[in-house]
Amino acid sequence: MKTNKSFLKRIKITRTGKLVARKPGQNHFNAKERRNTQMNGRRSQVLTFTKKVSQRYIGSLDKSK
Hints:
Blueprint: H1 5-8, E1 11-13, E2 19-22, H2 35-42, E3 44-47, H3 51-57
Antiparallel strand pairs: 1-2, 2-3
């Protein structure tokens, strides 16, 4: 299957093969948020997918390409 390019642009594949993405909905309008909420939005989150789902959106995670 083809790789979903729009989804792939939003994630980063680490050296060990983990998928890391930013939390959604924290790009702007954060001035009135609590400081704790602001900082939590800057942190990344690790995505976990089943093999079937990761093949559907990412293709193979082979780093030798």
